[in-house]
Design a protein that fits this description.
about 400 residues; alpha/beta; Rossmann fold; 2 domains; 7-stranded mixed sheet; 12 strands; about 50% helix; about 15% strand; globular
């Protein structure tokens, strides 16, 4: 028996973040509260009382090779559309067969469009409350288009848009992790705006409180900054690189920047840019690392830098807040929701970002005070417990 089923096409991997991680946290917390909950991740059923939910695997050694191959993979867009269609038909059928093994499901919560498209229209889910959380920046095709613009106006684009249409119309409730996420989705799919307005709910994501596991470890205040961002245009890693160059030239600050984030076809451009600005030796590119390693690096950093052009709600920012790390961020809506409208270390341009970093680097007490303030905001708003409370209200299980 499972009262709640959390579904994602991916296995929860803490280092990867995203919807699968949120699904894993909800499975764990709901089960801890005594609510029978299962995870349907990929094509596997996970019972948190019997097997671990999270996987700390990192594709660090192979991700660069595959990110470079991916740019060729999407070139024959019509052929890819056909092959994906065959793959998706098989995946949807297998996923439905897995779901039929679960009984007495009152809430079916999908954390991606694929899972919702496969399960929501099924006769086996007709009596369940169907909830879809949109964790992406826009619809399915929006993020792909930013890296692979040549799929525009192809059958692949049409196919992905159809999945979104089916999922949104079949959902009883559509959850967004921030007002920014809702706005971006409606911008990418204006044809679905009226349906979304009727069914949407904002529930901010939460993360585990990481501070206790580091409380006994001294804060060595190492001389490095950290940026956790996938190498895609909207994450603004190039803005961080420009700010680092200005920090070096205008403020004579020789600091190291550690970048954690999966490689993409944009990675060579970013590395070339850092070299042209004379800061290639100041940046360490680590790709995706296991979550425990990412947390160790985050805890040791002086400042967390996040400079997206737009963001929905980054889990890494919440983790930095949990660890009381001061943050310099661009004032995009998702960051403003996380850090608060009055946060004093927002910066819009590389020059302003460099200035804010220099201010924090020059005053250790200020770094501690800002970090403490951010941790307090995290405890008030962004814990897993708070996130689970809000979901239980939507599930009508309180």
């Amino acid at each position: 028996m499972s009262v709640v089923v959390q579904c994602s096409k991916n296995r929860p991997i803490r280092a990867a973040g995203g919807g699968a991680t949120v699904a894993g946290l909800l499975v764990t917390e709901l089960s801890r509260r005594g609510i029978p909950t299962l995870g349907l991740f990929g094509l596997s059923i996970f019972d948190p009382t019997r097997n671990p939910i999270f996987d700390d695997y990192s594709p660090r050694l192979t991700e660069l090779m595959f990110s470079n191959l991916r740019q060729f993979y999407y070139r024959p867009a019509h052929l890819v559309a056909y092959l994906r269609y065959l793959r998706d038909i098989l995946y949807f059928a297998l996923l439905r067969s897995k779901y039929t093994r679960l009984s007495n499901t009152r809430v079916l919560h999908a954390h991606d469009t694929y899972s919702a498209c496969a399960l929501f229209p099924s006769k086996f889910a007709k009596d369940a409350l169907k909830i879809l959380t949109i964790h992406s920046k826009g619809d399915l095709v929006a993020e792909l288009l930013r890296i692979y613009p040549y799929i525009r106006n192809t059958s692949l684009e049409s196919q992905l848009k159809l999945y979104d249409t089916i999922a949104i119309h079949a959902a009883n409730i559509v959850v967004f992790p921030s007002h920014s996420a809702l706005s971006l989705y409606k911008k990418s799919r204006p044809d679905l705006s009226s349906v979304i307005d009727q069914r949407s709910v904002i529930i901010h994501n939460g993360v585990e409180d990481l501070y206790p596991q580091f409380a006994s470890k001294p804060k060595n205040d190492h001389n490095y900054l950290i940026n956790i961002a996938q190498h895609v245009p909207e994450k603004g890693v190039d803005i961080t690189i420009e700010a680092l160059a200005l920090l070096k030239s205008s403020y004579s600050r020789q600091v190291q920047l550690v970048n954690l984030g999966s490689y993409t076809p944009l990675t060579p451009y970013l590395q070339k840019k850092s070299k042209s600005l004379g800061v290639d030796h100041n940046i360490t590119w680590l790709g995706t690392v296991p979550h425990h390693e990412a947390l160790r690096l985050l805890h040791g950093a002086q400042i967390y830098i996040t400079t997206p052009r737009h963001t929905v709600f980054d889990l890494a920012t919440l983790e930095a807040m949990s660890l009381a790390i001061p943050i310099v961020a661009t004032p995009v809506p998702g960051n403003v929701e996380a850090l608060g409208e009055s946060y004093q270390f927002f910066a819009s341009t590389p020059q302003e970002i460099a200035e804010k970093i220099a201010t924090l680097l020059s005053d250790r007490k200020l770094r501690i005070d800002v970090g403490s303030m951010l941790r307090e905001r995290y405890l008030q708003m962004f814990t897993v417990n708070a996130m689970c409370d809000r979901h239980m209200a939507v599930y009508n299980l309180r």
